[in-house]
Structure formats: structure tokens, C-alpha cells
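Why this split exists: single-chain examples teach little about how molecules sit against one another. For that reason, every record in the complexes split bundles all components of an assembly together and asks for one structure covering all of them. Below is a record exactly as it appears in the raw files.
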Amino acid sequence: MSCWETIADYALRSQGIGERLLPRTDFTLCQQFTLIGSGMIWNIYFGIVALCSGFFLATAVAMGKAARNPWVRKPAEWFIFVFRGSPLFIQFFFAYFVFLSLKDVSSFFDPLTSAWAGALVVLFLNTAAYSGEIFYGALQSIPKGDTEAADAYGLSGWSRFRRVIWPTMLRLAWPAYTNEAIFLFHATTLVFFSGFPATQQRGDALYYANYFADKTFNPFIPYPILAGYFIVLTLVVIGIFGLVNNRLNRHLPQDARRKIKVRPQIIR
Amino acid sequence: MFSFCTDPAALEGFQWFSCYLTTGKHMSMYWAVGTVLLLLSITAPTALAFGFAGASAARSNVAPLRWIGKTYIAVVRGIPDIAFFLFFVIALDQAFEYIRHRIKCPDWDEPVRQGNDFIVCTAAKLPLGNAPQWVHETYGFLLAVLTFAIVFGAFAANVLFGAMRAVPKGQLETAEAYGMSRRQTFWRVLVPQMWVYALPGLSNLWMVLIKATPLLFLLGVEDIVYWARELGGAKQPQFTDYPHPDWRMWYFAALLVFYLCFTKVSEVVLDKIMAKLTHGQATAAGEAQRKAAA
């Protein structure tokens, strides 16, 4: 079987399209590259959807934590504490079993027991908590002069937030938020190892890498392939976030712009 | 456990729970908490040692050593750590067996990798096939500890490398002016001073390490995640004295609370240590402390 045929058979295997049976013997490099790459679809899906939706909740949580009213502040503080203080791995397990018991209550909750929706909810809440804390820190360090200038211009309420506070917050938080985005993509590899079933062996990149390592008893091929895919993904994320960073800082002189520095990843 | 536990079927409410929660299997689960603590207490110093070695190597004068150190630090960036965990457990096991194989069976002429099998001679097996169960468990646990230490050592190396560079240049130049050798400067001036700069990063790392302990489950150790899944599952009356429906949700809720308490306590303690260390230091935090007192 040529490599092209393998790609045709397995490129969309993680979505259930193409050849049903996974390879069982005589594993080729091509098969490993194709299947692990196919699994990356899940990682990218979870990462992008959770990031985009989590961004809005994170802004709300950050504003909530900075609020003076304790009825708003306390829930936001607890939300951040619970999701940042416990391991994501346990959160996945807990959420999965909660969703399982919700399933008995109403069929409305059925999708939540499968990974595409259930794990997404957990990742969404988790990234909202982590980025909420980052945004909160940025809110605290907005230069006093900026808000005073906004007051002097007669801005208040929504327009003050929209035109002054929010852009400044994003600008200050962006380097840390880039790291958070990278960690989130890495965290997506936990999904299929924590309760959520990979129905018909449709799993993510690590699921397939683990499959090959188990079958061939040789970890030195699948895991480096996986690592290669993730390094490329990380570089793409850094590139895209760098573009946004440039746009956020476009009014600053060239040399005063803050460069994004990538720090080593952190497990949750 | 208690005297009234002889007939579980007749028990109600609180008494039923006090018996249920003290069965032998639950005791194993409480022991598993001990496993987590043991892992933390072994891994933390080992990872710190790995980190120190890595950071010192990364700023070495000898080029190959520097490359090794820098690669060690850099290689964990950009790759999901869980992939490292899954990788190292098999890779280390095979590496150990391969080394023993070369030493113990020098006249073995077949290749070690045959198709999908990894074959070493019987004497090189780790642990030996006839070893008791506890040896197998301990070996698995030690592999897990080593894996954790390697991964977290790289994180720690990164933190310490940054901290070594944060020590003011003037301090090192003064040491040189006093005629200290490179080695003396390193051990007598740089190392004692770097800890203040390293502590925020290290305490962050400690929190991350706590939150990584449930991954032991993936490495095949019978830890609290394993027991929560085992004990929480629905139990039928014919197989157990304490039948109950699927309680895994509550078991994991308990684990969640356990980890929340653990991180909270660590946070408080680390804040105290940081406050102690910054006392009297010429840093922004130390200055703020001095002003607050005045």
C-alpha cells in the first residue's frame, strides 16, 4: 500500500471518515504520521473553540473579580480558585461523571457525555478561569493616567471600558495570554485519557501515538512524531498571537513594543 | 473496623457510612493519598537537583555541556508534558533493560527489537519475572518518580537559570575582584543569592507539581484516581456487603476538594516563606514590606 493510499484511508480517521480498522501489524512510518496528524484535528478543534469562547467569559470574570460589589466579586474569585486550584485531569473525570448522571435527568444532556461537547465545556471553563486571572492582573496594572485621561475626555461607562480599559488590558495581558493559549493546546491531549470515551477509536493525536506505542512497544517513533506536530502547532499559535500583538501595539513607537516571550509550559 | 459493622445489611445512615468508608479497599485508597505525598516528597528534591544540574550545565564554559543543558531546558517547551510522561515510562524501562541485557548476556546475538517486540534475555528483565508483587509495584513507582523528576527538572532548570542571571553583576564582579576563582564565585556568591529570585518560580512549580500528581494514574500506578474509579463504580448486592449505585461523581468531587485544600495550604505556606525571604532584601517587595511596617 503506497503512502498516498494510506493518507486517503486515514487522514480523516479521527472524524470517523475513511478506513474503519486501524492498522494492526506492519506499521509503517506513513501510517503513524497520517493517523497522529489526523488526531491533531481534535486538538485544534478543542483548542480553538475553547479559546474563542473562553475569551469572553474570561473578560467577564476578570471584571467580576475587580468589581467592588462582593456579590459579583466573590463568585468570580471562587470560580478562578476552583479551576486554577485543582488538576485539570480531575476536573475532566468529575465533569464526565456529573454529565453521566445528568443524562438520566433529561436527554437534553446527552451530547455532554461525548468528548466533543463535554470536554469542550470543561476546557472552556478552565481556560476562562486561567485567562480571567491573567486579565485581572492586567486590569490591576492599567496605568492610572490612562483612566484619568478617559475621565478627562468625559468618557464613562461602556465607552470608557470599550475604548480605554479593555484595549489597555488586552495589551498588557497579551504576552501572558499567548502562553495560556499554548498551554491550552497542550492540555487538550488529556481529553481522551480522562473518562471521555474515544468512540470507535476516534481519538486525538496523543491517543493514536499511545496506540502505536502500545502496539509496537517502541515509543521512539510515535512520540517524537507527536512532538513534531505540537512544535509546529505552537509556532503557528505564537505567529498568530504575534500578529494580534502587533495590531494591539500599533500606535506605539517600534522599539517600545513589547515582544512576546514564550515561557516553558505549565501543566494544569 | 467498628464492632457494629458485622452485619452491614442492617445498618442505616451514619453507621452505614462509617462502616462503608472504613472497608479494606477504602483503606487502600487512603494509603494511595500517602503514595501521592511520597511521590511529591521524593520528586521535589530530585527535580530540584536535576534542575540545578541542568541550569549549571546551561551556563557552563564547556560547549558540549552547555548544549546539553540548553537542549534539556528547551526540549520541554512546545511539547505536551503528558506526552513526555507516557514516553519516558516506556523509554526508561527499555533503556534499563537494554543496559542490563548488554552486561548480563554478552553472547546474545539476536537483535533486541524483533518486529513489534522488545526482547531481552530473561536475566535482564526488570523486575525479574519471579519477583514478588511488591517489587513490581515499587519498580513502577520508581519509574514514575524518575519520569516526574526529569520533566520537572527541566522546568526547574529554566527557573534556576533565570535566577542565576538575575543575581546582580556587581556581586559577581566584586567576588572576582577579591580574587575568587570561577568555581568559588559560583558556590560562595551566586548560589546563596539566587534563591530569592528563584522562589516565585519554584513555588509556582510546586503548585504545578501538585496538580500533576493525578497523572500517576496514566503511568500505571494504583493511585487515588485509580481507587476513586474502582470504588465509585456501581456495586451489586451479590458481590459486596455495601451495594450502592454509581458514586464516581462523588468520589471525584472528594478528590477535587482534596486538591483544592492542598493547593490552598501550599499557597499560604509559600507566601509566608516568601515574606520571610524578602525581609530586608533590596527588592521592590522588600521595600514595600519596610514601608508597611513603618
